[in-house]
Write a structure and sequence with these properties.
16% of the residues lie in helices and 12% in strands. The two termini are 15 Å apart. By secondary structure, it is of the alpha+beta class. The protein has a two-stranded antiparallel ribbon with strand order 1-2. It contains one helix and two strands, in the order E-E-H.
Length: 67
């Protein structure tokens, strides 16, 4: 196994991830995190449930394989 290869597969769309922040228009406000209400890296117009970097990290920890 290559050290850069992921240990386990992750689903492409978990339903909680938002669109990438690259879609933000200049000057557009940022969306609030649905868990803690902190600003996210995503524009306010994003569909889905945007998470701030901290909540996104914690969600990834919870959903990661334990193997």
């Amino acid at each position: 196994m290559d050290e850069h290869e992921p240990y386990c597969e992750t689903p492409a769309d978990s339903g909680t991830a938002a669109a990438p922040a690259t879609d933000a228009a200049p000057g557009e406000p940022f969306a609030e995190c649905v868990l803690c209400r902190e600003p996210t890296e995503y524009p306010a117009s994003v569909k889905g449930a945007p998470l701030c970097p901290v909540c996104e990290w914690r969600e990834a920890e919870r959903t990661a394989c334990s193997g």
